């Protein structure tokens, strides 16, 4: 029992000290969830969003028709631009090309939102890993926000141009440190 409490306390400490910024998207998650859908989507649109995903759950198919989730290594630092017109651009250390597609916010029950991504081509991304072209892959906005390290208005790296600024490292970073490197 003491070991379990120690592990739990350690996890809380690590989450508090090294985790994503709670209000990186601006208002708190409860304030965003309280916004009408259109207002919440407008609030997120036009932002460069940096996430850090060290490990994540991935669904695994099983021969007995019952799948399961398994913890796998994540891509590390990723940078996205959520364009105001619904286009989405992803800069990831897993690829040598900029991924793109569409994004949308969808309503879920209990006044919660999903953020959904639809890749326009084949690529390997944590959130859209199992989505086919023109198919949206959704995740609860609160879960997505839990991976956000930093966000700011505008297309900080001009990802909408379709060009990668440079090869992105999986190591933790800040938007400012990446901007300095791209100069």
Intertermini distance: 53 Å
Number of distinct beta strands: 7
Structural class: alpha+beta
Q: Work out the count of structural domains.
A: 1
* Helical run tally: 5
Calculate Rg over CA atoms: 17 Å
What about the largest sheet? 7 strands, antiparallel
- Strand portion, in percent? 25-35%
What do these coordinates show?
It is a single chain. With 183 residues, the chain is α+β, with helices and mostly antiparallel strands. Helix content is 24%, strand content 34%. The protein contains 5 helices and 7 strands; from the N terminus they run H-H-H-E-E-E-E-E-E-H-E-H. The chain has helices at 2-18, 29-34, 37-44, 141-145, 175-182, and strands at 47-60, 68-82, 87-91, 99-108, 112-119, 137-140, 148-153. A 7-stranded antiparallel β-sheet has the order 6-5-4-3-2-1-7. A hairpin with a 4-residue loop joins strand 2 (68-82) and strand 3. The longest helix is centred in the first third of the chain and has 17 residues, at 2-18. Residues 1-21 and 124-133 have low confidence and may be disordered. This is Lipoprotein. Residues 1-18 form the signal peptide. Keywords: Signal.
Strand-helix topology:
Elements: H1 2-18, H2 29-34, H3 37-44, E1 47-60, E2 68-82, E3 87-91, E4 99-108, E5 112-119, E6 137-140, H4 141-145, E7 148-153, H5 175-182
Antiparallel strand pairs: 1-2, 1-7, 2-3, 3-4, 4-5, 5-6
């Amino acid at each position: 029992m003491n070991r379990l409490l120690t592990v739990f306390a350690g996890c809380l400490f690590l989450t508090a000290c090294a985790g994503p910024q709670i209000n990186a998207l601006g208002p708190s998650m409860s304030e965003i969830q309280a916004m009408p859908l259109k207002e919440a989507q407008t609030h997120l649109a036009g932002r460069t969003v940096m996430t850090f995903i060290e490990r994540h759950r991935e669904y695994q198919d099983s021969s007995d028709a019952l799948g399961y989730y398994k913890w796998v290594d994540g891509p590390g630092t990723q940078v996205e631009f959520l364009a105001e017109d619904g286009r989405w651009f992803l800069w990831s250390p897993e690829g040598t090309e900029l991924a793109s597609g569409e994004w949308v916010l969808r309503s879920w029950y209990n006044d919660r939102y999903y953020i959904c991504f639809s890749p326009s081509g084949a690529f390997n991304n944590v959130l859209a890993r199992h989505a086919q072209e023109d198919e949206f892959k959704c995740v609860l906005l609160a879960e997505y926000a839990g991976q956000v390290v930093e966000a700011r208005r505008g297309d900080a790296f001009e990802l909408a141009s379709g060009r990668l600024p440079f090869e992105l490292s999986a190591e933790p970073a800040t938007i400012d440190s990446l901007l300095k490197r791209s100069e």
